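ARCHIVE CARD
CATEGORY: sequence design from structure
SOURCE FIELD: tokenized fold
FIELD CONTENT:
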């Protein structure tokens, strides 16, 4: 769920919660207040009626006369004598023969009860009437609570509707208010993604913000990190280039001297052979490192000519067949005629590296199939092998420099692998606006895909393209 949606839900729930709490308090206060008023009315009516009640000669009860004061229409009265039963009832409940509230035990003190009579709810006050120490009867005064109930219902409706409306309004207000703030965050995210996609650390996220703006602070901090990373990358590339250049000279000297010693015939042939082969290996590695450093930094000059990819692929197949010998079967799949714009030598280097790897990692009796197909406005080169496959945990790293899968690492100094070939291929393809992908299943084999855009026109407009970083 988006941050904006989460904030909106949180904010409206908070507003709803506060209003609900407030509503409960208001509802309770109003209810208590109304009941208090009813109780006051009951007491007042009871006092007036008791004043109006007399005892006859034999200690029975008598309502002296109809109450002199005006009874409200929702007030009901019953006078019960202990032995004689109902002695008086107000006009509106003349038909009612049962007590308003239970009379099972004559109360010794006034008592309030909420009772239901038919559909009506009544609050009834029962007052004991005594002669000396003897309770001789009970006066019951009841009030219909319909007014209280309708007031409570109306209040409840207002509180619920008010709370829901406030929650919706608060949600809309926050949704609108966060739009502006989060839109700048979206823009910053887009810019950051573009920088990542273009692998261009020299770009910065544009954001104009007044001091104290949190998103502005975040963007500034991110831009500073980018600046620092850019510096580190520059330093690293310079370091690789410098070390490469520095190592080249002593290697040339060692190689020259080893050759001289051999010519003079004054040393052990095997030792000299070993020195020469290690020097060759190191020289190749330094060559690859220097190439990688310049292709990564975009400083490698690339020619930009029409290249017949099918012819180039056949040429590479011809060359690499020597490596496969009878050990591995080399087969051509679908080969379409395809023209791309690019640097023939560098593209050849990519193909050589991928096919060489396929042969190198496929065990005897295996097969390597190479294909070239046109798909929409692009072409797809596929190199399929039946080798051991690449472990899933290594797959995301194989285009990193010096990365070698566990198995390859343990086979020390086999062939010429340093873990640089795929990094170089990745950068060359990238600077041809292409993509290189890999799929692998352990125990079944690996497929590399290289996607390149087809040539549009004759490529002459950019005939001396030099890569920009
Ligand atoms: P290397 O010189 O070691 O072959 P690369 O950069 O060409 O270096 O390849 C990196 C790693 O990717 C290799 O060490 C190997 O583990 C793995 N790899 C590349 N191609 C294949 C393949 N066709 N089959 C299995 N593993 C491969």
């Amino acid at each position: 769920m988006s941050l904006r949606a989460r904030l909106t839900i949180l904010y409206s729930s908070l507003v709803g919660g506060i209003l609900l709490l407030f509503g409960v308090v208001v509802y309770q206060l109003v209810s208590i207040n109304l009941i208090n008023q009813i109780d006051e009315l009951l007491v007042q009516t009871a006092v007036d009626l008791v004043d109006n009640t007399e005892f006859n000669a034999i200690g029975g009860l008598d309502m002296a006369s109809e109450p002199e004061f005006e009874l409200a229409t929702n007030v009901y009265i019953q006078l019960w004598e202990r032995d004689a039963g109902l002695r008086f009832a107000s006009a509106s409940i003349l038909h009612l023969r049962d007590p308003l509230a239970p009379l099972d035990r004559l109360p010794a003190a006034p008592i309030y009860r909420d009772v239901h009579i038919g559909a009506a709810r009544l609050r009834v006050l029962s007052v004991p009437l005594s002669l000396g120490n003897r309770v001789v009867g009970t006066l019951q005064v009841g009030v219909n609570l319909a007014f209280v109930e309708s007031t409570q219902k109306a209040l409840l409706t207002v509180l619920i509707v008010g709370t829901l409306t406030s929650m919706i309004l608060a949600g809309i207000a926050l949704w609108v208010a966060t739009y502006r703030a989060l839109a700048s965050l979206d823009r910053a995210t887009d810019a950051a993604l573009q920088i990542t996609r273009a692998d261009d650390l020299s770009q910065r996220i544009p954001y104009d913000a007044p001091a104290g703006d949190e998103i502005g602070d975040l963007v500034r901090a991110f831009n500073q990190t980018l600046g620092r990373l850019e510096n580190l990358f520059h330093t690293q590339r310079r370091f690789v280039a410098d070390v490469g250049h520095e190592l080249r000279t002593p290697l040339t000297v060692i190689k020259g001297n080893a050759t001289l010693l051999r010519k003079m015939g004054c040393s052990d042939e095997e030792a000299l052979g070993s020195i020469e082969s290690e020097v060759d290996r190191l020289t190749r590695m330094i060559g690859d490192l220097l190439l990688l450093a310049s292709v990564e930094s975009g400083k490698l000059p690339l020619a930009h000519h029409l290249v017949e990819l099918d012819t180039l692929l056949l040429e590479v197949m011809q060359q690499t067949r020597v490596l496969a010998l009878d050990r591995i079967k080399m087969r051509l799949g679908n080969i379409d005629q395809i023209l791309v714009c690019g640097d023939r030598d560098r593209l050849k280097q990519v193909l050589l590296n991928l096919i060489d790897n396929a042969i190198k990692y496929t065990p005897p009796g295996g097969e390597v199939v190479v294909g070239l197909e046109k798909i929409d406005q692009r072409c797809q080169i596929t190199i399929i092998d039946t080798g051991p496959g690449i472990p899933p945990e290594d797959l995301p790293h194989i285009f990193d420099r010096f990365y070698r899968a566990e198995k390859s690492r343990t086979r020390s100094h086999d062939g010429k692998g340093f873990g640089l070939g795929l990094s170089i291929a990745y950068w060359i393809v990238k600077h041809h606006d292409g993509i290189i992908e890999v799929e692998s299943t352990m125990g079944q084999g690996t497929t590399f895909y290289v996607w390149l855009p087809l040539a549009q026109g004759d490529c002459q407009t950019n005939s001396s393209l030099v890569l920009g970083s």
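CARD ANNOTATION: The CA atoms of residues 106 and 454 lie 106 Å apart. The two ends are 37 Å apart (CA to CA).
SHELF: design records, drawer C
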